[in-house]
């Protein structure tokens, strides 16, 4: 590690690890005290520490796609309240157009940290709330045409003033959401986590001194920038273009395009999103802070993982996106389901990087988590099931894709079946992997997963956000594409209905909704896969004997379940000649 000459490297390491522990402890506090499944079980939240200008010094080990959003949110607090900020104040916001938010369900709680009557830093927690109102339960509408339909908009407001809760703001929030107990409970978890971060930061300041701590935090940012620029310098200069697509079949037959033009020049990467589709009359528009985060997150995947998770490394990355597009929308564009576009931005950047540094980039995966929301009234009370299903990564240059591993943009887990069934009027009928679904390759893509849920309430509104049906996960270096996603409702009378990748449907008691998300794509020529690895897949029931023969050219005796080496060599030679 190399630091500036006036920085003690040992103290620097102590401070850096102390700040990392601070934000991770905040994240654990949220998980342990939150009320909703989407926060405490799926872990759709992030924690951060920002300096006095709103720059991220440290972020907890939660969601990459939140990294680019903290600065804009904190800057909005500074802009609106810099002359009215006191110890014990806690701010709340969620609006993308008024307050630096990224969509309405993601509510920010931000606390200024005062030392010697002066703000020295800000602790921040953003959490995806179970409901913030709007036209569908869960507030993740894909069909909303303007933000006014998506729920409660919060400009920067004081949630606490000098340590006292703002009852007016809390009453407004409570009156506008379907599940106020869970929303207010999660807000309290966020407030508590910011207080924990404040205490730990003040303790660090008392140990090292305020002036020294400020120098160390500045050096963390500079150190991250130096590491990032060194890593970029090791990549070949060049220009690459790639387009990712959101099926968006609820909006018409033409997919939404995310176009990426990526240039590596010395120690700098420029990413231009010009040419992306104009903002749409649907909920998938991605506010600029979220789009930037998608670019930053993708590039980080090909850099040294030891680079501190802060804004310093983003200084080496320039992102441009024209206004009025799906990656930089203008008011009143809807953005409740903007996550799917953020995932496509990451995937498109990875597709461009694969042309320049192919040995560092895996094949495409399931496309990010699908969001399934079912809500309504049961026995006179509102209920809301929100699930974030994920985990089918593409094969990489050295390993198969992993099942159950979420998209790198969002470290989110599926809701545990036992918890959901105990709390909600639903029953799971199926949860498992689909044999033969992984994209064939030298390194195979992860298998699709299927999850089926039966409604036990009298009625419900289903909202689905999924993707990768028409535009399947792409293979690399000769690997095959992954399998597409599907959404099917089986009614109580056993009739079936196939739904679009995104949209709303009504459900009645006994109806079963089944979601199968896309599989991971393959990396490399399937005929180059080790025959022993194919046999292992057959024994693990990931691949059938028939698929082993048809895609990998491996002949397995069905009686003894061993490889016929001679027949395999002959078949592979014949398959290569037939190409």
Blueprint (SSEs and pairs):
Elements: H1 9-33, H2 37-40, E1 45-50, E2 56-59, H3 70-81, E3 90-93, E4 106-115, E5 118-128, E6 157-161, E7 164-165, H4 167-176, H5 180-208, H6 210-233, E8 238-246, E9 256-265, E10 268-272, H7 288-300, E11 317-320, H8 339-356, E12 370-378, E13 381-389, H9 417-423, E14 426-433, E15 449-455, E16 459-465, E17 486-490, E18 496-498, E19 502-508, E20 512-516, H10 531-539, H11 545-552, H12 565-577
Helix pairs in contact: 1-5, 1-6, 4-5, 5-6, 7-8
Mean pLDDT figure: 95
> Can you tell me the number of structural domains?
3
Total count of strands: 20
Strand content: 15-25%
| Number of helical elements | 12
Biggest sheet, open or closed, and with what strands and sense?
7 strands, antiparallel
Principal-axes shape call: globular
Computed CA radius of gyration, to the nearest angstrom: 24 Å
Biggest sheet: strands side by side, in what order? 2-1-5-4-3-6-7
Helix content range of the residues, please? 25-40%
Low-confidence stretches: none
Give the end-to-end Cα distance, rounded to a whole number of Å: 50 Å
Label the structural class.
Answer: alpha+beta
